[in-house]
Amino acid sequence: MVVINGENAENASGLTLAQYIKNAGYNAERIVVEKNLEIICRADYDKTVISDGDSIEILNFVGGG
Predict the structure, then answer these.
(1) Which class in CATH covers the domain with range 3-60?
(2) Which of 65, 11, 52, 22 is nearest to 33 (CA)?
(3) Which residues pair with 8 in a beta bridge?
(4) Using CA atoms, how far apart are residues 59 and 52, in angstroms rounded to an integer?
(5) What pTM, to 2 d.p., does this model score?
(6) Is 31 helix (H, G, I), strand (E, B) or coil?
(7) How confident is the model at residue 65, as a pLDDT?
(8) How far is CA 52 from the centre of its chain?
(9) What is the pLDDT of residues 11-52, one digit of tens each?
(10) CA–CA distance from 39 to each of 15, 47, 60 (Å)?
(11) Which sequence spans correspond to the domains of the chain?
(12) pLDDT given for residue 46 in this prediction
């Protein structure tokens, strides 16, 4: 099972980070992804496959003033 932002993500296993990010509606330019306590470079989202047992955190930047 994959855990993303503290919740079970049953359909995420086998997807790349890029695919998951797109499907979930995130703007890849405004997020940081941590997979199993390691920050993943944006350039590697297409190459990084989500597997059972992974723990992923997606942090979305919010601007304000």
Answers:
(1) alpha beta
(2) 22
(3) 3
(4) 21
(5) 0.90
(6) strand
(7) 64
(8) 14
(9) 999 999 999 999 999 999 999 999 999 999 999 999 999 999
(10) 18, 14, 14
(11) 3-60
(12) 97
